[in-house]
Amino acid sequence: MKNIFEFAEACLHNPGINEKLIWTHQAWQAMTTGNLNLLSEHPVAPIDQVCFPDLPILLAPRDMPKRKLGSPEGVAAFFHAIAHVEFVAIYLAWDILYRFRKMPNQFYQDWLQIADEEAQHFELIRRHLQTMGVNYGDLPAHNGLWDHAKDTSENLLARLAMVPRCMEARGLDVTPAIIKKFENINDTASVALLTRILTDEIGHVERGSYWFKNLCIQQGIEPEAKYRDLIKQFYLGGKPKGPFNREMRIIAGFSAAELDWLENTHL
Known about the structure:
Layout: H1 4-13, H2 17-32, E1 58-59, H3 72-99, H4 105-130, E2 141-142, H5 144-151, H6 156-184, H7 188-218, H8 223-234, H9 246-251, H10 256-263
Parallel strand pairs: 1-2
């Protein structure tokens, strides 16, 4: 494969996990060496043709078993959940570059790099899980992230608002406290893994912020107002609840006004 959209179709429409990881890394390598064609030569297939593996079994978030980090089973369940988030994130990065065409080359380079980093995260977590005697797919998972992709499959601004600038940004809020919990029990392997992921995710959210604002400006839209409108339209419940990590979110491209709106329950 020499075309980015051929790689995207292979990764999105083939449920194989290991093949998806290999193709993602091959595509990024081809991009970095200038051997990847970014011309839009292939039609876009509907999002309902995207294929996921048979395992893990997917449940509604409310039906997921409740486990705490205080037990080995709870730690394994936590990392299995993170593995699933990172696995779906590979799909999300591929889907945004596949589904939305006629964008600048930098858009495709950014999201392919993110797909590659999400694949690295998944591989790291899967190996970490295996040290606990658990394989990815052994436990159930929920598919809330992909539901947002389906809801925004025809609206790039909504996709950017809901996925990197809402759901992925949530990781910036909650991960630092989880890292502290693992530090308190001297689990250095988990701390290192989560710190690596958090560092990369700041950059992923920043790319979402960059492209959201870039496209709004191109279209003559005020970005902060559009962000509020899209979150209210697509987020169940109106907008996410805090607390929010202002420092990391500002690094990741959020404005003070956006954060003030998120934090103020009366707006």
